[in-house]
Amino acid sequence: MGRLVFLFASSLLLMVAATTVSAAILEHSFYVKNLTVTRLCNRQVITAVNDSFPGPSLRVREGDKLIIHVFNMSPYKITIHWHGVSQLMSAWSDGPEMITQCAIRPGNNYTYNYRITKQEGTLFWHAHSSFLRATVHGAIIIHPRARHSYPFPKPYREVPILLGEWWNANVVDVENQALALGIGPNISNAYTINGWPGDLYPCSQNQMYKHRVEQGKTYLLRIINAAVNSHLFYKIANHNMTVVAVDARYTNPYVTDIVVISPGQTVDVLLTADQPVGSYYMTANNYASGSGTAVGVPFNPTTTRGVIIYQGARSSTTPLMPVVPAFNDTPTAHKFFTELTSLVGGPHWVPVPLNVDHKMFVTIGMGLDVCPPNVSCQDRPPVGAALSGNMNNVSFVLPTMLSLLQAFFFNVGGVYTTDFPANPPVQFNFTNPSINADLPLLFAPKRTSITKVKFNSTVEMVLQNTALIGAENHPMHLHGFDFHVLAQGFGNFNPATDTLKYNLFNPQMRNTVSVPVAGWAVIRFVANNPGTWFMHCHFDGHNSVGLSTAFIVENGPTPETTLPSPPPDLPEC
């Protein structure tokens, strides 16, 4: 009997030790300041973290706790958002300006403190103030806990691939100019791979990302779209890739020769170096869904490229170039976005909640606003109107005196209203371009209108794109939650027929869904995380003019499900 007690006690101690060993506390310091770099023939001052562009990668294990001290030594106010991290019971560390915190002023600092819970794969961090995320961003690489493994063969090496966008201008000025003129921002001058534009751009022959591989080895590419306003096609000449995760959620293996990735999304792929020894270009170019619509949306038509170099390849060998898809290749984009499925029974898999408590039908798109004071709107017809964005005919306005989370926690009135409509206040033929002739449809009131839901309720949203101003694909990102993407399609959502298309068995999970051009997507999530959570278009040019909304999730019934008090160093407004 004594031996049994000893064995049981020893086993219990081992279990506790294993749990302790598998989770760590990781502490980092981010110094945000000016950095001078040379790109596209110009020396330029950018805002960067720790003197690097892209910024440092955070390498963690599931279950680890992160403590990140952000010191703002730049001339701009800033926040950092940990994109895709669920922030379970740590809403004060989510980072969107005026949603969960006020900005960190120049010369000040703030500490973000959160745990990575039931997520594995690739996410990323970025600035959530102005257009600063164009240069203030980096990877978050989440490995399984110690003694746990991937649900696929272990790769030989892991390689972050950050796709970005470059302006030959101060990106804060780019946004300010757009807002001052009431128009969309100037298009970027280049795309980048890990910060490098590649040899198709001026003065960039030696500014190209290169990755060396060994023939026969398999590599895990962690692809991140950190671009500000662009969906991207990604290809590698003569190579297939196998998708194994998106947005830090495992998928069934999906073999493809192209990855389509929207701003805010991540895709993990296995790449096997199975071709003859040589060099092979990788490319990224714009998927410009709105360019073929009635109101053309300007875009950058250029291509960035890096190169995969096999060990033993001759330096004189000209790399092979992939066939780059047409910029408006919607069939290819839709195929990729809709054919991915979740790995049922895999690590951290979550079944689809079947009972829905709160149903919403939400139109998303652009519109117009009566030209505000100090804004010149001559460039946009009708004269006297500025570009605006809206969801269900509400153009979202950020608070100015207090963040939403502070207002919720301290029960401060007058900061927001809870009357965001669950359905469009006006019914119309959403995807018919002729609706642009109906001027009242183009104008949406501006207000801080949000949706309040009870803790642990299940929310379903039909996200319906419109053709107002111009139809295009919108990447919609939800903070604080991953959601199931039940279905996607073109045209106006029809509940009588389209609900029959719902995948309730193994739909992909995401934190950012690419809603098809002139189409719709249906998402579902459980609101099990108290706090205020931003939902917005991850085109910064659209988010900054109101294509967004927010949720308040009420506290749960226990102390463990109640929003904690704010940290003492929370920035003042």
UniProtKB/TrEMBL annotation:
Q: Name one GO molecular function term.
A: hydroquinone:oxygen oxidoreductase activity
The subcellular localization recorded is:
Secreted, Extracellular space, Apoplast
Lineage top rank: taxon: Eukaryota
Q: Which cofactor does it need?
A: Cu cation
Question: So what EC number does this one have?
Answer: 1.10.3.2
**Which reaction is recorded as catalysed by this protein?**
4 hydroquinone + O2 = 4 benzosemiquinone + 2 H2O
All residue ranges annotated as the Plastocyanin-like domain in the record: 32-146, 158-313, 419-556
Supply the Pfam families for this chain: Cu-oxidase (PF00394), Cu-oxidase_2 (PF07731), Cu-oxidase_3 (PF07732)
Q: Which InterPro entries match?
A: Cu-oxidase-like_N (IPR011707), Cu-oxidase_2nd (IPR001117), Cu-oxidase_C (IPR011706), Cu-oxidase_fam (IPR045087), Cu_oxidase_CS (IPR033138), Cu_oxidase_Cu_BS (IPR002355), Cupredoxin (IPR008972), CuRO_1_LCC (IPR034288)
Entry keywords, A to Z: Apoplast, Copper, Glycoprotein, Lignin degradation, Metal-binding, Oxidoreductase, Repeat, Secreted, Signal
GO aspect biological process, one term: lignin catabolic process
Q: What does this protein's record comment on cofactor binding?
A: Binds 4 Cu cations per monomer.
Q: Key word Oxidoreductase present in the record?
A: yes
What residue ranges carry the coiled-coil annotation? none
Does the keyword Lipid metabolism belong to this entry?
no
Top EC class of this enzyme: oxidoreductase
Q: What is the documented function of this protein? A: Lignin degradation and detoxification of lignin-derived products.
PANTHER family in alphabetical order: LACCASE-7 (PTHR11709:SF9), MULTI-COPPER OXIDASE (PTHR11709)
Q: What is this protein called?
A: Laccase
